[in-house]
């Protein structure tokens, strides 16, 4: 084993990663120096290791306060699967199990304990009297803020922790970044001069796309095609209402797509079943209201689709953030229509905080309508500046073209004026396009001068143009007057004073990148092969997961499988190089995986390099594996590993093997060798020494003596 145990070593050994992500290393160093710490990092940013690694390096227990009982088990399972002594304690646990856990805690057998705030508060006296605590981590720390949407009253009582353990550092973590929440967390937890770390909220692996005004039937076709183009991948579709989630599910079923709905109107049992099936990849798609997600830690959600416009940017960001937590390319696809905007407006009209919510909806619309890089707008909303276009949003991929829209805007404005500002969007478009439908004729709209002057544009073009006119403030929608359109003073300037307006060319973006890898025109044969291998390994992972009764991504993340596919390790040492393969996982699954890879390659007719058994042992020794571990991992006898070591010493690939035998044994073997004259066979020496020195030690000693002689050293 390596002697200096440092954060890097733990990252590699337990999590299988070679490098820290931005800020992780500084945060861990600070925590190890007992600093109170506040961490703001987006979902999937890698907050957990910021307390998990210190927990492994500190002498006593780390308490992890988490509000999500449903998540605790997964998190603990994931830690256990990396060979880390972790457990959880929540109100659903029975007395007997709790007693067993207390025993283990008192014996110091557990490094990380996940606990719900209620439970921790209830057991505070117990912990303070019986358990030594090294660190307290408060996950989802924003739950403490009454300002936020996830407020949990019991979180506010956590200030007792600092009173109880004034010297134990607290690390608070959240993915919600706003200033009020930040202040609240620091104050309420009584953090002492906390080191605050704010990571970038950019999620470059999420591809952003917005589709405007797609008709319902067409939208469904698009969504179904999108999902079918991703046969082994799962995702979430967010819908505005409970009814809409159920409708979407039955629509997807018609396409043979596996889908379930999830909303707050279901009972707890049904909800947890739906969630569980999704986590375990039994259901491919969840159609949900925003009630779904807080409890979702599934790292391989590959797409999030918004069936309609979210009501603000915070919600949008949080929801798309559930995709691609493992860092692999994932899609965020948003559909919206004027109808959504009207619906959301009317909700807001009936709610409290009207002004604020309307402003938030406006910002959401601006994001949806932007002619510049969407990621720039998204990050700017959270106070971050992105200096380059992202090249991973629909606007970057298909730059919008501006044109002089003055004349078009004037046509629309004039039609609004001539109908005394009494029409809504759809009627206005029908007038502009010269429709003869009943409502138009009955109101004599076909007689006004502007009737039909916009014939050359499609209905959907006009929708887009009017949306832009709304967004740049040429017209307003009177939500209290049947959503009729009113001309603003800016609109007057355009209509009467000929002020120029630039608009974005309306264009139906038909391409919704049905294939996951947009831009790749043709898959090469190698890519096809790799995709097949990926699926093959995914299937093996599933078998392992089912055996252990955990979700597949707890065994390995998709990112780990991807890396395995590209590295195609041939032996255990190479497997150690795969991202996410820590020592524990290599020991546990290494042989199975290598066998799977080999049988795959055999079927594919790939020539397999002949493995060298000595080299493999050598590589594992160099990784710090013990002989016992190597034997276990390689499924060989320990005596075989000893013989490898003896051989490696002969070939001078190992130069110091003295830790594997006692000096006194060497003396005995040396003497027996002289007395018997036997230099190769083990048994005569074994018998001569009256079976006091085991065979494998004799072999090592003979190897040492042999090399001494060859090297001419006495
Ligand atoms: P968060 O809690 O911030 O949402 P997690 O801690 O769950 O994020 O981490 C998200 C994913 O990133 C996990 O699969 C985790 O194993 C992985 N991860 C964390 N740190 C690293 C790293 N340094 N290198 C590679 N992957 C990492
Ligand atoms: Zn962009």
Question: Could you tell me the radius of gyration in angstroms?
Answer: 32 Å
Strand content: 5-15%
What compounds are bound to the protein? adenosine-5'-diphosphate, zinc ion
CATH-derived architecture of the largest domain: 3-Layer(aba) Sandwich
Given this structure, which CATH class of the largest domain is correct?
Answer: Alpha Beta
Number of strands: 17
User: What fraction, in percent, of the residue positions are helical?
Assistant: 40-55%
Distance between the termini: 30 Å
SS field, number of helical segments = 33
Low-confidence parts:
517-521
Strand order of the largest sheet: 3-4-2-5-6-1-7
CATH topology of the largest domain: Rossmann fold
Coarse structural class: alpha/beta
Overall pLDDT level = 89
Relevant CATH superfamily of the largest domain: P-loop containing nucleotide triphosphate hydrolases
Summarize the structure in words.
With 714 residues, this protein is of the alpha/beta class. It has five domains: 7-198, P-loop containing nucleotide triphosphate hydrolases (Rossmann fold), CATH 3.40.50.300; 206-397, P-loop containing nucleotide triphosphate hydrolases (Rossmann fold), CATH 3.40.50; 402-504, Winged helix-like DNA-binding domain superfamily/Winged helix DNA-binding domain (Arc Repressor Mutant, subunit A, Orthogonal Bundle), CATH 1.10.10; 525-609, DNA polymerase, domain 1, CATH 1.10.150; 637-710, no CATH class. The strands form four sheets. Strands 3-4-2-5-6-1-7 form a seven-stranded parallel β-sheet, with helices on both faces. A hairpin with a 5-residue loop joins β15 and β16. α18 crosses α19 (425-432) and α23 crosses α25 (558-567). Mean pLDDT is 89; it is low at 517-521. It binds adenosine-5'-diphosphate (ADP) and zinc ion. Adenosine-5'-diphosphate binds at residues 17, 19-21, 24, 41, 43-49, 299, 325-326, 557. Adenosine-5'-diphosphate is lined by residues 17, 19-21, 24, 41, 43-49, 299, 325-326, 557.
